[in-house]
Amino acid sequence: MGEIKITVNGKEMIGKSGDTILNIAAENGIEIPNLCYNKNLKIYGACGLCLVEIEGAAKLFRACATAAENGMVIKTDTERVRRARKVALELIMSDHFGDCKAPCHLNCPAHTDIQGYLKQIALGNDKEAVRIIKEKIPIPASIGRICPHPCESHCRRRLVEEPLSIAYLKAFAADNDLASEDPYKPAKAKPTGKKISIIGGGPAGLSAAYYLCLGGHSVTVYDAMPEMGGMLRYGIPEYRLPKAVLRKEISAIEELGVVMKNGIKIGKDIGFDEIRADFDAVLIAAGAWSSSKIGCKGEELNGVIGGIDFLRKVNLGEIPDIGKSVAVIGGGNTAMDACRTAIRCGAEKVYVIYRRTRAEAPAEDIEIEEAIEEGVEFRFLTNPAEIIGENGKVKALKLQVMELGEPDASGRRKPVPVEGKFEILEADTVISAIGQKYDGTGFDSVALTDRGTIFADENSCMTNLEGVFAAGDATNGGASIAIKAIAEANLAAKAMEAYLDGLPVDFKKPYYSEKKMTEKDFADKEKIPRAKMPVKSPEARKRNFDSVIDGFTDEQARAEAKRCLECGCHDYPDCRLIRYANERPIEPQRFAGEIHESFVERKLVSIERDQGKCILCNLCVRTCSEEAKKGILGLVGRGFKTVIKPEFDDSNTTEFCKTCRRCADICPTGALEIIE
Amino acid sequence: MRIVIGEGSCGIAAGASKIRSAIENLLCKGENLSIGTTGCIGMCFLEPIVDIYEGKKLLKRLVKVGEKDAKAIVDAVRTGDFSGVDYITISAEDEQFLEKQTRIALRHCGIIDPTSIEDYCAFGGYGAFEKTIKTMTPEEVIEEIKISGLAGRGGAGFPTWFKWNAAKNSRTEGKKYLICNADEGDPGAFMDRAVIESDPHGLIEGMLIGAYAIGAAEMTVYVRAEYPLAIKHLEEAIKQAKNHNLLGENILGTDFSCEMSIKAGAGAFVCGEETALIESLEGRRGMPRLKPPFPAQSGYMGEPSNINNVETFANVPWIIEKGGAAFAAMGTENSKGTKVFALTGKIKKGGLVEIPMGKTLREVIFEIGGGIREGKKIKAVQLGGPSGGCIPAELLDTVIDYNALAQTGAIMGSGGMVVMDESTCMVGMAKFFLDFTANESCGKCVHCRIGTKRMQEILTRIVKGEGRKGDVELLEELCEAVKEGSLCGLGQTAPNPVLTTIRYFRNEYDAHINEKRCPAKECSALLTYSVDAKKCVGCTLCARKCPAKAISGEIKKPHFINQAICIKCGQCEKSCRFGAISVR
Questions:
Q1: What CATH class does A195-289+437-500 carry?
Q2: Do B449 and A642 touch (CB under 8 A)?
Q3: Residue A351 needs a FRET pair 20 to 30 A away by CA distance; which of A342, A488, A532, B389 works?
Q4: Per-domain residue ranges of chain A
Q5: Distance from CA of A611 to the nearest CA of B (A)
Q6: What's the Cα-to-Cα distance from A208 to each of A171, A177, A213, A283, rounded to whole Å?
Q7: Cβ of A84 and B481 within 8 Å?
Q8: pTM, two decimal places
């Protein structure tokens, strides 16, 4: 066979005469995307991804099926080619009914591989589970106890009966690992010689410190409080997160080599510029430590205290004099922490004042439930109009009665005052837990957003100052949940490493295929109730700060983890379709429409076929017929309804199929999965 | 004298068999009155048709004949006095339909008895073939076809001689195949059926000449199973030809041997694509193959094969008989000979029309087809079926020529010509054809399988009044992608009806999307029926006719239509005698 010379994307290359453009380009290091080609099988030419331009020809050619000719000048990456490839991918994706990642993963701000660690927990491999968790969350025993778990709200098992108890399972595995003789210890990269300072030792600061330390950098964390942990240490009450657990996890980070300096406030104990000068990069993760004002008359009275200020005091070991009767204002988790802490501090009467109803309350329902069990009285649809004082001290609250009006921007119905309707509530202490803010001191040169938070670029995480990054509650959108602070810190850590390496930062949200499903899709699924976390009785828990939960038993945890539906695609790491779909932005939603017949079946031996993920590349059909010489698979139907199906019923298919599994190996997506 | 009944599928559908029995029942025992049969003359609008012949001379053509006319016909033939059948005699105006045509491919259709080889031979049948194998070399045959300028009549318009020559030269020894594509799938196209039903020997003769030219010893006709009469006539014709030593070993005493078979296709549109047709012939799912290799190199069973359409073959004996130059004398610079069209739609005289290339669309539609029914105005004409495009009334002076038609965005195609008047919604028309191709996609190429589906969905929402801004641009983008990304002609041409309607009737798309209005008043979801209180006399007829009980009102007082219940069927408008109901 003779040799020919062709030019691909300006690069001259030699190939065998008669060989295809695709092959010659591939041999010379230029990959032309394709989904239906395999060099051992007959050329099919269906996916349309390998279209290329040939100089002098009007139309585009399929590189997989076009024999290269001597002197051909081929372009695989022109605007026209890219456009054609984009539409092809969009069309395929518009009819690809599959989840690249499970909904829990996508809805976890830190994108933890939940499906992955649940599987390990189900198998009893807690250490491996922790390894997976710690790719995203360095303090899982703590986070598992306190996370409001958006993952669970999106767990698809809720369409069967109830979501999995993901957060507690995470804590379960992490507790077991911490208690084990040989807890998981991550590998550290070689020292880089770079020095990084992190200001704030809360979830964001600790997380960034962990990953940057693992990256081989020398990391120092400064924190104003006596101990590390930030809001986890000083905001969350002991009964929800025992400090011993948090300390253990922080120690593990310290043992990796992170230098931790407590009791140092920037701007007071050390200048910000000094830190900037001493380190190659700085991360501000200072948190939001200042309570928002109620904004009503009497706020300055003695006995009015901010929610986090109150919680901090208690967590510092002070028992504040709150009197017999306490009114907590707010409907969030901080309000719940405050009211339940007030009960534990000995208050006889504790009220929660919330201007909407229970349904709108941002606090977790279990928190409201347990607070009620502990004797807290909820006054929904009331709002403080005035704090009434006597001798400069709180005496009572004048409450404006509210009703719900039209939905507001957040989608919740807006509370509106019922004109002239007020109530008086006797109280010795008023705790305002309606929000918290970054207080802004110590970083005068750092630019702020309109909301008074530190501005950090969404992509680079950098502030207005070169080499100064920011993450967590102090930044951009302001205070949120711990896992979000961790997620931001993880991103910032990557951005800082890129910055230190002098590389550009480009965090693009990956494109994922996502399924929309309803209860109907799971109508036949066996119902297995969610594991119930053993909780101490209200009487046993309300007068002390002991943990209210006892933790899952081993049996409970394994069974619970097995409830996982494993929504995410097994083939994600190797899927060519999703790799191509992420090379350049695509918008398959432009073509959203009907999806072809979708079902999952196991007619082939040891193989589960997910028709929804099939893209009809025909590779399985061809390998079954050409290589396995069986011809079990074939195309059925016409037009959009065309599907690939085994041609025989179960027993015959079994007889023919044996277990060659060629089809599963060759499938470019996750439509065929080997089931052991 | 002989009574000849037009008994093609269309004649039978119109009642020809009943007329035959009625006439036969009237005959006395032993009466020597001959009743013959013939195929389709192509005048669908006049079926059933009964001809009275004296020898080869047509004495009388009777049209729209019914069972009740049998006696008058028999009497006329018995007495030789035709005054009794004047009322069913074809009018001079309708005779124009045939007189204005030039028939080559259809030259025997509706004239000869398709079940009789003798009748075919009496019209000079197999003369061209005999001349070919006895006096011409294959090269000379191909040269003659080259001179004629004959191009593939199935739609692509590829020069026939070129394909024959490639197949001939691909190999000197071993098997070769000649295949006739009779998988006529375009909705509304029926010229291939007419030729096979009405002149099966004409097809066999054309194929034999082709087989001789390329050196094939086996011929196959791939015909739709939905054409049972065509298959029956062709089977009979093959038997007769064998008996006459026109098929089989050493044909007519020469060295040339050739067998012929029929393969009934299961009705997949894509099997009209030659490589998909070959797959189907081989017993596999009808899906296009990649080209190259072309069938002339590796076709049926991997052997060199040549595939032509029925109409292409039907022209061949004439060309050999009269010479290529005679054929080339007709037509335009680059389109030679004649072309058969199946004229349908809102036309007065629908049927099969064969005219020389170079005539204008206007001549075909108005001079032969008699113009539009019910005095309406012509809006557009769709050429080439679902793969073709629509040509607006302003461009009716376009000549019938491969290039000229392609410039309008339409194609010559296999010859479907659907005429549309002002009451046809062009978006709905595009959707109709796209529905067809989308459902007939073989499912192989992503662009064709999913792309046409998405186009169908977008068109559906537009005609339902749910179109969105940007939908036309999205359609255009999809059209280009589907054309470029599809392997075979089905996908490559499926967007044509959409592209041409956007090109010429963009205003209709915009009206549907922006104003939620169908200018042709055809998209029921966008119509509003209302009663003009000034004209309504309260006769209650509309209320009684309304199937949805959407109309109410007291007797002798104006009625009104409840729009929430109205199903927009239009019954009220049709029933109102006072013109009080309007639609917009």
A1: alpha beta
A2: yes
A3: A532
A4: 3-77, 195-289+437-500, 292-435, 593-674
A5: 15
A6: 20, 22, 8, 8
A7: yes
A8: 0.89
Task: Enumerate residues 6+ apart whose C-beta is below 8 A from B456.
Answer: B431, B434, B435, B438
Q: Which two tokens stand for residue A491?
A: 């991103």
pLDDT at A650: 61
DSSP string, B66-81: -GGGHHHHHHHHHHS-
* CB-CB under 8 Å, A593 with B453: yes
Q: What CATH code would you report for A3-77?
A: 3.10.20.740
pLDDT value, residue A654: 65
CB A301 within 8 A of CB A394: yes
A660 in helix, strand or coil? coil
Minimal C-alpha gap between A574 and chain B (Å):
21
A117: closest CA of chain B, how far (Å):
36
- Residue whose C-alpha is closest to residue B113's, from B14, B43, B197: B197
- Minimum Cα–Cα distance from A641: chain B residue: B443
Residues of B in contact with A577 (CB under 8 A): none
Write out chain B's pLDDT in tens, 584 residues: 899 999 999 999 999 999 999 999 998 877 878 999 999 999 999 999 999 999 899 999 999 999 999 999 999 999 999 999 999 999 999 999 999 999 999 999 999 999 999 999 999 999 999 999 999 999 999 999 999 999 999 888 899 999 999 999 998 788 999 999 999 999 889 999 999 999 999 999 999 999 999 999 999 999 999 999 999 999 999 999 999 999 999 999 999 999 999 999 987 899 999 999 999 999 999 999 998 899 999 999 999 999 999 999 999 999 999 999 999 999 999 999 999 999 999 999 999 999 999 999 999 999 999 999 999 999 999 999 899 999 999 999 999 999 999 999 999 988 999 999 999 999 999 999 999 999 999 999 999 999 999 999 999 999 999 999 999 999 999 999 999 999 999 999 999 999 999 999 999 999 999 999 999 999 999 999 999 999 999 999 999 999 999 999 999 999 999 998 999 898 999 999 999 999 88
Is there a single domain that holds both residue B144 and residue B274? yes
C-alpha to C-alpha distance for B407 and B385, rounded to whole angstroms: 17
Q: Which residue has the tokens 């109830």?
A: A162
Of all residues in chain A, the percent with pLDDT exceeding 70 is 99
**Which residues on chain A are in Cβ contact (under 8 Å) with B464?**
none
Q: Which of B248, B273, B111 is nearest to B184 (CA)?
A: B273
CA distance A47 to chain B (A): 5
- Outline where B394-466 has alpha helix (H): 402-407, 426-440, 446, 452-463
The per-residue pLDDT for range A266-279, each reduced to its tens digit, is 999 999 999 999 99
Partners of residue B449 in chain A, C-beta under 8 Å: 616, 639-640, 642
Angstroms from B467 CA to nearest CA on chain A: 13
Chain A residue with Cα closest to B460:
A593
Cα–Cα distances in angstroms (integers) from residue B475 to residues B503, B525, B529, in the given order: 12, 21, 30
Put simply, the answer to whether B446 touches A43 (Cβ < 8 Å) is: no
Nearest CA in chain B to A50: B485
How far does B148 lie from chain A, in Å, by closest CA?
Answer: 30
Instruction: Judge contact between A254 and A439, C-beta under 8 A.
Output: no
Pick from B444, B447, B474: which is nearest to A91 by CB? B447
Asked if A410 and A376 count as a contact pair (C-beta separation under 8 A), the reply is no
Measured CB to CB, residues of chain A less than 8 Å from chain B are 43-48, 51, 59-60, 62, 65, 67, 84, 87-88, 91-92, 94-95, 590-591, 593-594, 615-616, 618, 634-635, 637-642
Answer yes or no: are the C-beta atoms of A548 and A241 closer than 8 Å: no
Q: Quote the domain boundaries for residue B345.
A: 338-421
Q: Quick one: B43 and B81 in the same domain?
A: yes
